[in-house]
Amino acid sequence: MKKSIAYLPQKKQRDLLRFVEQITARLPKTQMIILYGSYARNEFVDCDEKVEFGVPTSYRSDYDILVVTDGVTDQRATRMLDAIDDMYYQDPELQTPVEFIHENIKRLNEYIEAGRYFYTQIKEEGILLYDSEKFTLAEQRPLRFDEIKLQAEEYFKERFESANEFLLVAQFCYEEKLYKKGSFNLHQACENSFQTIRLVHTLTNPKQHNLSKLFSFTRKYSSDLLSVFPNDTIEEKRLFELLKSAYIEARYNPKFIVTKEDIDALLPKVKRLLEITKQISEAKIAEYAKLI
Protein backbone atom coordinates (compact mmCIF):
# COMPACT_ATOMS: atom_id res chain seq x y z
CA MET A 1 0.00 0.00 0.00
CA LYS A 2 1.20 3.51 -0.81
CA LYS A 3 2.40 5.72 2.05
CA SER A 4 3.28 9.11 0.58
CA ILE A 5 0.96 12.13 0.45
CA ALA A 6 3.74 14.42 -0.81
CA TYR A 7 1.77 15.08 -4.01
CA LEU A 8 -0.96 16.88 -2.04
CA PRO A 9 -0.90 20.63 -1.28
CA GLN A 10 0.73 21.50 2.05
CA LYS A 11 -2.57 22.48 3.65
CA LYS A 12 -4.10 19.11 2.75
CA GLN A 13 -1.08 17.33 4.20
CA ARG A 14 -1.43 19.31 7.44
CA ASP A 15 -5.13 18.45 7.68
CA LEU A 16 -4.43 14.74 7.27
CA LEU A 17 -1.54 14.72 9.76
CA ARG A 18 -3.76 16.52 12.28
CA PHE A 19 -6.42 13.84 11.82
CA VAL A 20 -3.81 11.15 12.50
CA GLU A 21 -2.70 12.90 15.71
CA GLN A 22 -6.25 13.32 16.98
CA ILE A 23 -7.42 9.83 16.04
CA THR A 24 -4.47 8.06 17.67
CA ALA A 25 -4.85 10.25 20.79
CA ARG A 26 -8.57 9.55 21.20
CA LEU A 27 -8.47 5.94 19.99
CA PRO A 28 -5.17 4.47 21.28
CA LYS A 29 -6.06 1.05 19.85
CA THR A 30 -5.99 2.42 16.32
CA GLN A 31 -3.96 0.07 14.13
CA MET A 32 -4.16 1.75 10.72
CA ILE A 33 -5.48 4.97 9.22
CA ILE A 34 -6.03 4.79 5.46
CA LEU A 35 -6.86 7.61 3.06
CA TYR A 36 -8.99 6.36 0.16
CA GLY A 37 -11.23 7.81 -2.54
CA SER A 38 -10.46 10.82 -4.74
CA TYR A 39 -7.66 12.22 -2.55
CA ALA A 40 -5.85 8.87 -2.57
CA ARG A 41 -6.23 8.66 -6.36
CA ASN A 42 -5.15 12.30 -6.81
CA GLU A 43 -8.44 13.02 -8.56
CA PHE A 44 -9.83 15.38 -5.93
CA VAL A 45 -11.67 18.64 -6.58
CA ASP A 46 -10.58 21.37 -4.18
CA CYS A 47 -13.24 23.94 -5.00
CA ASP A 48 -15.33 23.85 -8.15
CA GLU A 49 -17.54 26.93 -8.31
CA LYS A 50 -19.82 27.49 -11.26
CA VAL A 51 -23.31 28.53 -12.27
CA GLU A 52 -25.58 25.64 -13.25
CA PHE A 53 -29.02 26.40 -14.68
CA GLY A 54 -28.75 29.94 -13.30
CA VAL A 55 -27.89 28.79 -9.77
CA PRO A 56 -24.38 29.32 -8.25
CA THR A 57 -23.02 25.97 -7.05
CA SER A 58 -19.80 24.74 -5.47
CA TYR A 59 -18.30 21.32 -4.90
CA ARG A 60 -15.38 19.97 -2.88
CA SER A 61 -14.19 16.39 -2.68
CA ASP A 62 -14.27 14.85 0.80
CA TYR A 63 -11.34 13.40 2.67
CA ASP A 64 -12.35 9.72 2.86
CA ILE A 65 -10.60 8.07 5.81
CA LEU A 66 -10.82 4.47 7.05
CA VAL A 67 -9.89 4.06 10.72
CA VAL A 68 -8.89 0.49 11.60
CA THR A 69 -8.87 -0.53 15.26
CA ASP A 70 -8.55 -3.61 17.43
CA GLY A 71 -10.80 -4.02 20.45
CA VAL A 72 -12.86 -0.86 19.94
CA THR A 73 -16.64 -0.99 19.53
CA ASP A 74 -18.26 0.71 16.55
CA GLN A 75 -20.23 2.89 18.96
CA ARG A 76 -17.14 4.22 20.75
CA ALA A 77 -15.22 4.72 17.50
CA THR A 78 -18.12 6.61 15.94
CA ARG A 79 -18.44 8.83 19.02
CA MET A 80 -14.73 9.71 19.00
CA LEU A 81 -14.60 10.29 15.25
CA ASP A 82 -17.70 12.50 15.39
CA ALA A 83 -15.98 14.59 18.08
CA ILE A 84 -12.88 14.98 15.88
CA ASP A 85 -15.09 15.99 12.95
CA ASP A 86 -16.89 18.58 15.10
CA MET A 87 -13.59 20.09 16.28
CA TYR A 88 -12.20 20.23 12.75
CA TYR A 89 -15.18 21.41 10.75
CA GLN A 90 -15.52 25.01 11.90
CA ASP A 91 -15.73 26.77 8.53
CA PRO A 92 -17.84 24.81 5.98
CA GLU A 93 -17.31 27.46 3.30
CA LEU A 94 -13.54 26.97 3.27
CA GLN A 95 -12.73 23.56 4.71
CA THR A 96 -12.55 20.20 2.99
CA PRO A 97 -15.30 17.91 4.37
CA VAL A 98 -14.16 14.66 6.00
CA GLU A 99 -15.93 11.29 6.06
CA PHE A 100 -14.69 8.68 8.53
CA ILE A 101 -15.56 5.00 8.49
CA HIS A 102 -14.47 2.52 11.15
CA GLU A 103 -13.60 -1.15 10.86
CA ASN A 104 -12.18 -3.73 13.23
CA ILE A 105 -8.95 -5.23 11.82
CA LYS A 106 -10.28 -8.79 12.02
CA ARG A 107 -13.47 -7.90 10.18
CA LEU A 108 -11.58 -5.83 7.60
CA ASN A 109 -9.25 -8.71 6.80
CA GLU A 110 -12.21 -11.07 6.45
CA TYR A 111 -13.77 -8.68 3.93
CA ILE A 112 -10.52 -8.39 1.96
CA GLU A 113 -9.98 -12.16 1.93
CA ALA A 114 -13.52 -12.63 0.67
CA GLY A 115 -12.98 -10.08 -2.12
CA ARG A 116 -15.58 -7.55 -0.93
CA TYR A 117 -15.13 -4.95 -3.64
CA PHE A 118 -15.32 -1.83 -1.44
CA TYR A 119 -12.50 -3.01 0.82
CA THR A 120 -10.29 -4.56 -1.84
CA GLN A 121 -10.46 -1.27 -3.72
CA ILE A 122 -9.38 0.62 -0.59
CA LYS A 123 -6.42 -1.72 -0.21
CA GLU A 124 -5.50 -1.31 -3.87
CA GLU A 125 -5.86 2.49 -4.10
CA GLY A 126 -5.48 3.66 -0.51
CA ILE A 127 -2.63 5.50 1.19
CA LEU A 128 -1.48 4.39 4.64
CA LEU A 129 -1.40 7.50 6.83
CA TYR A 130 -0.64 5.57 10.03
CA ASP A 131 0.42 2.01 10.81
CA SER A 132 0.99 0.53 14.28
CA GLU A 133 2.81 -2.32 12.51
CA LYS A 134 1.06 -4.84 14.75
CA PHE A 135 -1.12 -6.18 11.94
CA THR A 136 -0.94 -6.69 8.19
CA LEU A 137 -3.76 -6.55 5.68
CA ALA A 138 -4.92 -9.87 4.27
CA GLU A 139 -4.60 -11.02 0.68
CA GLN A 140 -7.68 -11.78 -1.39
CA ARG A 141 -8.02 -15.52 -1.85
CA PRO A 142 -9.89 -17.53 -4.48
CA LEU A 143 -13.51 -17.83 -3.40
CA ARG A 144 -15.45 -21.06 -3.11
CA PHE A 145 -18.71 -21.15 -5.05
CA ASP A 146 -20.75 -21.17 -1.84
CA GLU A 147 -19.06 -17.85 -0.91
CA ILE A 148 -19.64 -16.43 -4.39
CA LYS A 149 -23.30 -17.45 -4.17
CA LEU A 150 -23.66 -15.85 -0.73
CA GLN A 151 -22.19 -12.53 -1.87
CA ALA A 152 -24.29 -12.53 -5.05
CA GLU A 153 -27.44 -13.15 -2.98
CA GLU A 154 -26.58 -10.31 -0.61
CA TYR A 155 -25.90 -7.87 -3.44
CA PHE A 156 -29.07 -8.96 -5.24
CA LYS A 157 -31.22 -8.42 -2.16
CA GLU A 158 -29.73 -5.00 -1.40
CA ARG A 159 -29.62 -3.48 -4.89
CA PHE A 160 -32.76 -5.03 -6.34
CA GLU A 161 -34.78 -3.89 -3.33
CA SER A 162 -33.45 -0.38 -3.94
CA ALA A 163 -34.45 -0.58 -7.60
CA ASN A 164 -37.99 -1.61 -6.63
CA GLU A 165 -38.23 1.17 -4.05
CA PHE A 166 -37.22 3.81 -6.60
CA LEU A 167 -39.79 2.41 -9.02
CA LEU A 168 -42.51 2.67 -6.37
CA VAL A 169 -41.56 6.31 -5.70
CA ALA A 170 -41.60 7.00 -9.45
CA GLN A 171 -45.12 5.58 -9.69
CA PHE A 172 -46.22 7.74 -6.76
CA CYS A 173 -44.72 10.82 -8.48
CA TYR A 174 -46.59 9.91 -11.65
CA GLU A 175 -49.90 9.68 -9.79
CA GLU A 176 -49.20 13.07 -8.20
CA LYS A 177 -48.24 14.58 -11.59
CA LEU A 178 -44.66 15.16 -10.38
CA TYR A 179 -43.19 14.04 -13.67
CA LYS A 180 -39.74 15.58 -13.30
CA LYS A 181 -39.20 13.98 -9.88
CA GLY A 182 -40.55 10.77 -11.32
CA SER A 183 -37.90 10.80 -14.06
CA PHE A 184 -35.12 11.00 -11.46
CA ASN A 185 -36.52 8.02 -9.57
CA LEU A 186 -36.84 6.06 -12.81
CA HIS A 187 -33.16 6.81 -13.46
CA GLN A 188 -32.30 5.47 -10.01
CA ALA A 189 -34.40 2.35 -10.56
CA CYS A 190 -32.43 1.70 -13.76
CA GLU A 191 -29.08 2.46 -12.16
CA ASN A 192 -29.74 0.03 -9.32
CA SER A 193 -31.00 -2.62 -11.75
CA PHE A 194 -27.85 -2.41 -13.85
CA GLN A 195 -25.72 -2.47 -10.70
CA THR A 196 -27.61 -5.53 -9.49
CA ILE A 197 -26.76 -7.38 -12.69
CA ARG A 198 -23.12 -6.35 -12.54
CA LEU A 199 -22.70 -7.29 -8.88
CA VAL A 200 -24.38 -10.68 -9.24
CA HIS A 201 -22.22 -11.58 -12.24
CA THR A 202 -18.86 -10.09 -11.18
CA LEU A 203 -19.08 -9.20 -7.44
CA THR A 204 -17.64 -5.80 -8.41
CA ASN A 205 -19.26 -2.44 -8.93
CA PRO A 206 -17.14 0.58 -9.92
CA LYS A 207 -18.90 3.83 -9.06
CA GLN A 208 -20.95 4.89 -12.06
CA HIS A 209 -24.18 6.85 -12.64
CA ASN A 210 -24.06 7.12 -16.43
CA LEU A 211 -26.81 4.85 -17.77
CA SER A 212 -25.13 4.53 -21.17
CA LYS A 213 -22.01 3.05 -19.59
CA LEU A 214 -23.98 0.84 -17.20
CA PHE A 215 -26.15 -0.44 -20.05
CA SER A 216 -23.13 -1.02 -22.26
CA PHE A 217 -21.51 -3.22 -19.63
CA THR A 218 -24.57 -5.25 -18.60
CA ARG A 219 -26.33 -5.87 -21.91
CA LYS A 220 -24.00 -8.80 -22.63
CA TYR A 221 -25.70 -10.78 -19.87
CA SER A 222 -29.08 -10.89 -21.62
CA SER A 223 -30.22 -10.04 -25.13
CA ASP A 224 -33.59 -9.14 -23.60
CA LEU A 225 -32.04 -5.94 -22.27
CA LEU A 226 -31.75 -4.64 -25.83
CA SER A 227 -35.51 -4.88 -26.21
CA VAL A 228 -36.00 -2.48 -23.28
CA PHE A 229 -33.80 0.26 -24.74
CA PRO A 230 -33.49 -0.62 -28.46
CA ASN A 231 -32.09 2.78 -29.48
CA ASP A 232 -33.32 2.14 -33.04
CA THR A 233 -35.54 5.19 -33.58
CA ILE A 234 -35.27 8.90 -32.89
CA GLU A 235 -37.95 8.59 -30.20
CA GLU A 236 -36.23 5.67 -28.48
CA LYS A 237 -32.97 7.62 -28.43
CA ARG A 238 -34.74 10.69 -27.03
CA LEU A 239 -36.40 8.71 -24.23
CA PHE A 240 -33.14 7.09 -23.18
CA GLU A 241 -31.32 10.43 -23.24
CA LEU A 242 -34.09 11.98 -21.14
CA LEU A 243 -33.80 9.16 -18.61
CA LYS A 244 -30.01 9.45 -18.57
CA SER A 245 -30.12 13.24 -18.15
CA ALA A 246 -32.62 13.06 -15.30
CA TYR A 247 -29.90 12.14 -12.79
CA ILE A 248 -28.65 15.76 -12.85
CA GLU A 249 -31.25 17.75 -14.75
CA ALA A 250 -34.31 16.63 -12.77
CA ARG A 251 -32.71 17.80 -9.55
CA TYR A 252 -30.95 20.99 -10.56
CA ASN A 253 -32.39 22.39 -13.79
CA PRO A 254 -35.67 24.28 -13.28
CA LYS A 255 -36.14 24.33 -17.08
CA PHE A 256 -35.89 20.55 -17.48
CA ILE A 257 -39.23 19.39 -18.90
CA VAL A 258 -40.67 15.91 -18.46
CA THR A 259 -44.22 15.27 -19.67
CA LYS A 260 -46.87 12.77 -18.70
CA GLU A 261 -46.35 11.14 -22.09
CA ASP A 262 -42.64 10.71 -21.34
CA ILE A 263 -43.38 8.87 -18.11
CA ASP A 264 -46.13 6.86 -19.83
CA ALA A 265 -43.46 5.60 -22.23
CA LEU A 266 -40.69 5.09 -19.67
CA LEU A 267 -42.59 3.39 -16.84
CA PRO A 268 -43.27 0.11 -18.69
CA LYS A 269 -39.66 0.05 -19.90
CA VAL A 270 -38.30 0.34 -16.39
CA LYS A 271 -40.76 -2.26 -15.09
CA ARG A 272 -39.59 -4.62 -17.82
CA LEU A 273 -35.95 -3.89 -16.92
CA LEU A 274 -36.62 -4.94 -13.33
CA GLU A 275 -38.32 -8.13 -14.49
CA ILE A 276 -35.30 -9.03 -16.63
CA THR A 277 -32.91 -8.11 -13.82
CA LYS A 278 -34.71 -10.47 -11.46
CA GLN A 279 -34.76 -13.30 -14.01
CA ILE A 280 -31.10 -13.20 -15.01
CA SER A 281 -29.85 -12.55 -11.47
CA GLU A 282 -31.78 -15.48 -10.01
CA ALA A 283 -30.58 -17.67 -12.90
CA LYS A 284 -26.95 -16.74 -12.20
CA ILE A 285 -27.33 -17.43 -8.48
CA ALA A 286 -28.86 -20.83 -9.32
CA GLU A 287 -25.86 -21.48 -11.57
CA TYR A 288 -23.52 -20.79 -8.65
CA ALA A 289 -25.55 -23.18 -6.48
CA LYS A 290 -25.02 -26.04 -8.93
CA LEU A 291 -21.25 -25.58 -8.68
CA ILE A 292 -21.10 -25.94 -4.89
TrEMBL record:
SUPFAM superfamilies: Nucleotidyltransferase, Nucleotidyltransferase substrate binding subunit/domain. CDD domains: NT_KNTase_like. Residues 160-280 form the HEPN domain. InterPro entries: HEPN_dom (IPR007842), NT_sf (IPR043519), Type_VII_TA_antitoxin (IPR052548). PROSITE patterns: HEPN. SMART domains: HEPN. Pfam families: HEPN. It comes from the Bacteria. This is HEPN domain-containing protein. It comes from Flavobacterium frigoritolerans.
